[in-house]
Amino acid sequence: MNADLILASGSIRTLGRSGLQAFSHLAIASGQVAAVGGPEVMRLKGPTTRVIDMHGGAVLPGFNDAHAHVVYYGLTRFGADLGGTRSVDEIVKRLREHGRSLKKGEWQLGLGYRVDELAELRPPHRTELDQATRERPCYIDERGGHARVANTASLEAAGLMGPGQDPPGGRIGRDRNGLPNGLLLEAAMRLVSDVQPPPPIERRQEGILLAQRLLLSRGVTSVGAAVNRGFADDLRAYQRLADGAQLKIRINEFLSWELLEATSSLGVLKGFGGPMLRAGPIKVFVDGGAERVAMRSGGGVWRTTPDELRSLVERASRAGLQVAAHAIGDGAIEAMCDAVEAAGATGLRHRVEHCTICPADLQARLAKLRMVAVMQPTAARFGRVASALFFPARDRKDLAAHGPLMKAGVPVAFSSDLPVSSDPNPWPGVRAAVEDQVNGIGMLAALRAYTVGGAFASFEEDHKGTLDPGMVADLQIYDRDPLNEPTASWDQLRPRAVLVGGVRVFGRL
Ligand SMILES: [Zn+2]
Known about the structure:
By secondary structure, the chain is α/β, with parallel strands linked by helices. The chain has an 8-stranded parallel β-sheet. A 6-stranded mixed β-sheet has the order 3-2-7-22-23-24, with helices on one face. Strands 9-10-11-12-14-13 form a 6-stranded mixed β-sheet. Helix 1 (70-76) crosses helix 6 (201-217) and helix 2 packs parallel to helix 3 (126-133). The protein is built from 16 helices and 24 strands. Strand 17, helix 9 and strand 18 (323-327) form a beta-alpha-beta unit. The chain has helices at residues 70-76, 88-99, 126-133, 152-157, 189-193, 201-217, 233-243, 260-266, 306-318, 330-343, 360-368, 379-386, 402-408, 427-435, 443-449, 452-457; strands at 5-8, 11-13, 22-23, 25-29, 32-37, 50-53, 58-61, 63-68, 80-81, 108-113, 138-142, 147-150, 170-174, 180-186, 220-225, 250-256, 277-285, 323-327, 351-354, 372-375, 412-414, 475-478, 497-500, 503-507. Zinc ion binds next to loops.
């Protein structure tokens, strides 16, 4: 067999059987790793083989970002960018500027503010948005994705301007006179999004391409595409891009809990799909965002009650489908463990997304139930430094418990939760996980959580996630070895080139 491509004289780490050991040569044939080793790999060179001298450059498997909101991120690119705003006035100003680009009657969206970054330490009031938007419906998202503010026109469109009741698992913010102030939390957010005209599929496709470009430029070759709502249109958008040979990143598309019945009636089983696009887990929210997590000690929001969760996990398991449950607080994680145990479904690798506050007894249960923790390693830093604002009192050991979870035998996959973190670059997360003083892990464990960890979470670890021979040639190339660079510079780390299935999809070789 002749190789199609040989990378020679590099510093190549498989992160597989030989861990962090560096090899000089790697050969690719038919989209897969054909051999890895020393100069003897050159015997696979044939008349048409391309050989690239790496001049000591580094090669790693492509990252697998196990939980990033691909379509949502893409769509927000067409709204007002509210990232970095420091006051309500600044939000209003940016909305006014962005509004000039919109057609008459078109809804205005925006994303990226955070209440704790605003001088007022409160979200804008609907009447403040009205100053910029007037009659135009406007709906903006806080960066965490669990709180939104609607202006008066969009509240009217949703029939919410009178008195009314909070929906289960959500809250409608109100003034003292009982009228909505514009704030919609958790499950209440859908009351307005349900009346918002859905974006055309062309816009979804454009959004996916924007997200794809960003992710590939950060070395991400596979992504768990998380969803907030059940739009089957997302799958269609990916499929159309794949048909047009425009889909370059491998997608494991989550399916909203609202699609469970449809998915199981179709007979779709876990892992359904092909090498570029797969139907992923059924996604459900158990508790709220960081400010409203469900703790055993009480408090927080239950977007899905423990009884509803038990029924959902039972139905999904019976249909042969994996569940990915958003659960941040120990109460929510415990409810998911109870649900999986009741369903007797230990072979489906049911996932806990975030898994942020997880004490030892729950770590042991996750391991016993053969569940997967899909975490955002930057929470180790963010959580410890800034969490006093959000999280209830807790044992520091229980927060971002990467090390203890792994020691307990729980497979851990890392992710960015884009656009909750605005840059999906995995390296700052790897750094946070390795340098964490409380629950820190080794470099190999951190890199594996960001590569084969995600492949395991989507049942693909037998062919993806390391550069052992026989695995798909999804890899990233760096001019200089990241592991020899100071970790403080990792925020700026970018691969020189990225290959998916042995084909260049980003940068230059
Ligand atoms: Zn998410």
